[in-house]
Amino acid sequence: MSPAFSVDSDRTVKTNARTGTTRQGMNKVTSMRVNWQLKAIWPVAVVLLSGMLLFLLATVSLEDTERHRLLLIAGSGAVAICGVIIVVLVTTIQRPLIELQEQIERVGQGDMTASVGFAKRNDEIGDLGRNFNLMVQQLRESREEIEHLHRTQMSRAEHFATLGELATGLAHEIRNPLAGIAGVIEIVGRDLPASSPARAVVKDVREEIAQINRILTDLLGTARPRAAEMRSSDLNTTVEHAVMLARQQVLSKPIKIEFTPAPDLLEVEHDSDQIHQVLLNLLLNSVQAIEGVGTVRVAMHGKEAENEGAVITVSDTGRGIPSDLLPNIFRPFFTTKGNGTGLGLSLARRIVEDHHGRIEVTSSSGKGTTFSITIPVHQPAATSVA
């Protein structure tokens, strides 16, 4: 019995040494690990010793020679029974456990072809083996799916990178002649008589040129984003400035833009120009979503002292976004507007994520839309690359 216990004890010590680092912080259930063979043998041993004690008491009346002979037979029988039990335990339990432990080590090293051979047994040990093999199979399938998704994402990333380079070059090539066209249109417009009907056409051409220029600007901002310049400043001021500009756009419309600052919010690390761009885009989208009388509410939340992050909400009473379109609104070039580029919200999300924040949206048709932007008060320190 000793060799079996010794082998298992050594294996237990090695296992504890390998997994010791992963068990830090876990509560210790017992102060000493008890060998599983001892747990299996001690009830049998107690029963055998109790039986021998009762047998000894029962044979007190016998003569010494007969009593010694019976005790010898009983002791030999007890030892034989213990030996048989040990062999059965080693064969039916210890070997499967050793095999299971070896296969778990293989899985831990990344080998997803591991399996146990005792899964064919028709008992609880066999159930354990079948469950282990099924778990490894599911892990293998999950890893294959993750690898497939990773390859797909990498392929898409390379594709978008190529498109970005192409779009950047194309935008520059278009902008140069576009500036010349705008200049010619300006000269032609000045030379036309005041009563000429062509002046209306010139005005339309100017607006179309301005629209093309806005599309190119958004395209360049998406394809070649500018690095954020983080500075600690009052986020209330940044948001209020965007609200003031948006109010200028609705002077002739029955739309109110309300702003509620956060007095307890001190300074937030952010790029004021980029956050201003995000908010102005959201505000103009809200204004365009309102048909007739409506309200756009901008509110600030957050406490700098507790480092909870600053939260900006932009809510409107517009027509809302259908639920089937809601998951796609941040995708590049996705738009429901006839004259939209589909890059505004995509660029807004990228800017917010560059600030280590998040942008969320809730909406329902006919009841308005709410955008929520969360920006951490302090940006995480940049890690240097060796």
Write a concise keyword list for the protein shown above:
8 helices; five-stranded mixed beta sheet; alpha+beta; 386 residues; 7 strands; 3 domains; disordered N terminus; Heat Shock Protein 90; 58% helix
Task: Please give a structural write-up.
It is a single chain. By secondary structure, the protein is of the alpha+beta class. It folds into three domains: 2-15 and 33-142, no CATH class; 161-223; 231-375, Histidine kinase-like ATPase, C-terminal domain (Heat Shock Protein 90). 58% of the residues lie in helices and 11% in strands. The chain is built from eight helices and seven strands. A five-stranded mixed beta sheet has the order 2-4-5-7-6, with helices on one face. Helix 2 packs antiparallel against helix 3 (64-108), helix 3 (64-108) packs parallel to helix 4 (124-191) and helix 7 (272-289) runs antiparallel to helix 8. The model is unreliable at 1-31 (pLDDT under 50).
Following the backbone from N to C, one meets helices and strands in this order, namely: HHHHHEHEEHEEHEE
Query: Mean of the pLDDT scores?
Result: 77
What is the CATH homologous superfamily assignment of the largest domain? Histidine kinase-like ATPase, C-terminal domain
State the domain count. 3
Share of residues in strands: 5-15%
CATH class of the largest domain: Alpha Beta
* Sheet with most strands: 5 strands, mixed
CATH topology call of the largest domain? Heat Shock Protein 90
Question: Given the structure, what is the number of helices?
Answer: 8
Low-confidence stretches: 1-31
